[in-house]
Amino acid sequence: MIYLDNAASSWPKPPQVVKSMEEVLLNYAANPGRSGHQLAAKAAEKIFETRARIAKLFHVKNPNDIVFTQNATESTNLALKGFLKPGDHVLTTSLEHNSIRRPLEFLKAKGVEVTYLNIHTGKDLHADLLEQSFRENTKLVAVTHASNVTGTILPIEMIGEITSRHGIRLLVDASQTAGFCSIDVDSMKIDLLAFTGHKSLYGPQGTGGLYVHPELDLVPLLHGGTGGYSELIDQPPIRPERFESGTRNTVGIAGLGAGVNFIEQTGLQQIQQHEQQLANYLVDELAAIPSIAVYGWEKNEFQCPIVSFAVEGFDANEIGFILDAHYQIAVRAGLHCSPLAHDSLGTSEQGGLVRVSFGYFNSEEDVKELVHALKDIIN
């Protein structure tokens, strides 16, 4: 199987990720923070080790400002539902994944005002458009760092400079960029950073987290046991326990820590260079096929390694099915949980697009096999 669906979930995982998870299961799969014995202490130590490693990756000073969740969707729900109140106004974009759009639509029914800025690429979101959209009650700007449909990267530094100047908080969905782009929450003035573990961080599914600015408080999404402070009737006031009710996924978090370690050892620049070369190579090859149209890719721009395209005369899902069933090539076809992005691209009525997304373990040979298969299907 040629796997080209890394924007959905990276695969294969680095060997050290599997090894780290196996080590926990075999040697100390106790309940972290729930008991005083050495196995529980070892599990808690492993969780903090990963928390500190992620904090270092995002230039977060205090690891306890990193809250573990099961995925980026839980993180954005915690951020949006925990911060916004009826009467608040939030600004977002048409490029958002449903993990931001659906919580916002839920909150809209509760009295939160939502504005969607219709943009196609990161360059469309300029300073004037942003500032002209602010209202007196604007409390938050919630944006994806990169589109999961086209890979275009939004100018987070510019957005953060403007929001901080206006006293507005900034939530960034880094699902596609954590582990691929350099992220510094302080210099980029990010107040809330949602990330998932199973994509470019090379961890397992069921892992993710949210950075919460130390001066920012949220209403917890979950209430329950936190291991300590059992005498309190309310959620503990300290972090990360305030936002981490229930037993943490020690096995998954250990794997996530090993994934981040893999990134540290490999280097972001090397990862970026390899994956962008593959994306550029694919775009060049597709440009030579008249019946294929690529959407959103700008070769001279720094983008996530995502290439989405349409094949004339074919539904996107049909192409995806044929590639899987007859050529053993895995891609993602359809609307990619981002219907507004497809509306802005004009690709909704045609069933969306075929999306190819690269990871570090892909090769030029994978691209050649895909291009050969597409030509075969078209002919």
TrEMBL record:
PROSITE patterns: AA_TRANSFER_CLASS_5 (PS00595). InterPro entries: Aminotrans_V_dom, Aminotrans_V_PyrdxlP_BS, Cys_dSase-rel_unknwn_funct, Cys_dSase_SufS, Cysteine_dSase, PyrdxlP-dep_Trfase, PyrdxlP-dep_Trfase_major, PyrdxlP-dep_Trfase_small. Transmembrane segments: none annotated. Keywords: Pyridoxal phosphate, Transferase. It is an enzyme of class 2 (transferase). CDD domains: SufS_like (cd06453). Its EC number is 2.8.1.7. It catalyses: (sulfur carrier)-H + L-cysteine = (sulfur carrier)-SH + L-alanine. One of its GO terms (molecular function) is cysteine desulfurase activity. One of its GO terms (biological process) is cysteine metabolic process. It holds the Pfam family Aminotran_5. Residues 2-370 form the Aminotransferase class V domain. Belongs to the class-V pyridoxal-phosphate-dependent aminotransferase family. Csd subfamily. This is cysteine desulfurase. It comes from Effusibacillus dendaii.
